[in-house]
Design goal:
By secondary structure, this protein is α+β, with helices and mostly antiparallel strands. Helices cover 18% and strands 26% of the residues. It has helices at residues 3-6, 29-42, 54-61, 143-149, 152-158, 222-233, and strands spanning 8-11, 17-20, 44-47, 87-90, 102-103, 108-111, 123-130, 138-142, 162-166, 190-194, 196-198, 205-207, 216-217, 240-243, 250-254, 258-262, 272-278, 285-286.
Length: 292
């Protein structure tokens, strides 16, 4: 029996699926194609019990597109020595007391990775090397399900609106390195994108919110923008998958149709994750077909 026939896709709910029977260190082309098909359907894929070097992680990641260098977070850009396309997410300090990674141990609010740039990344992967005994779970919310749950009148109201995605703060709420703090969403640094977008492959419509902090709906009075955003955000958790990490887990998510967040954990515990990011293949496009 071929390897691809041994691969199993186990749905985890409305969003997410666990892929079983695959060794990501040595995938075949048929397995990659099957993984991509499952990914476009489920948005978030979980692979457990993997044993990956950074070279393996990069090799698997490159099947999905060109890689980005790590984003500029509050702690700057963090990579392992010799691997500039791998991003370290960790609260661990080195011998000089400097963080080896970004995002520390606090809570990371709901967000889409780097949505504040003109062509946000298509996808991200996170691989666990060390995890705390408690906390640090990562949750994923389906933006397709959120849109489908909204009243039709609200969808019609927002379908042609644009939202500015703030670039001042990272998902932990920290000012990005080199940026200046701002409390005015109308003037803060960021990029406008359609509020309702279409996935370039599946053609499914999804909300595209980025993050709540400093978000602004273009052309509205600030108070009106805030009220409308609060209403839209009330549907964000319509379908959520919460991932409880084990060492050797790799999670791949579609950055165009999901948001994710992280729970806080004990700052004395160690958490070390290696992440890759797939460069955006295009700017988010406004949806033409909406949920019925």
């Amino acid at each position: 029996m071929s390897a691809v026939l041994e691969m199993k896709v186990r749905p985890l709910g409305v969003i997410g699926a666990e892929i079983q029977g695959v060794d990501l260190a040595r995938t075949s082309e048929r397995e990659i194609q099957a993984i991509k098909q499952a990914w476009y359907r489920h948005d978030v894929l979980v692979f457990r019990n993997q044993k990956l070097s950074d070279d393996h992680l990069l090799g698997f990641s490159r099947h999905f597109g060109t890689l980005d260098s790590p984003p500029n977070q509050g702690a700057g850009r963090k990579s392992p020595p010799g691997y500039p396309d791998v991003y370290v997410v960790s609260n661990v300090l080195d011998a000089q007391g400097e963080p080896i990674g970004a995002l520390g141990d606090g809570e990371a609010a709901w967000h889409t990775d780097m949505s504040y740039i003109a062509q946000p990344p298509d996808a991200s992967m996170l691989y666990s090397l060390e995890i705390p005994a408690h906390g640090g779970d990562t949750s994923f919310a389906s933006m397709k399900a959120a849109l489908a749950a909204m009243p039709k009148a609200l969808v019609q109201r927002i379908r042609n609106l644009d939202i500015k995605h703030d670039g001042t703060y990272d998902s932990g709420g920290y000012v990005r390195k080199g940026m200046t703090a701002s409390k005015d969403p109308r003037t803060s640094v960021g990029t406008p994108h359609p509020l309702v977008i279409e996935h370039p492959v599946s053609k499914m419509a999804a909300l595209y919110l980025g993050r709540r902090l400093n978000a602004y709906i273009m052309g509205l009075e600030l108070a009106d923008s805030e009220r409308l955003l609060d209403e839209i955000w009330s549907y964000v958790e319509s379908a959520v998958y919460r991932h409880r990490w084990a060492v050797g887990d790799l999670v791949l998510w579609d950055n165009r149709t999901t948001m994710h967040k992280r729970d806080a954990f004990d700052p004395k515990a160690r958490r070390v994750m290696h992440r890759t990011q797939i460069r955006g293949s295009g700017a988010p496009a406004r949806a033409t077909a909406l949920p019925v």
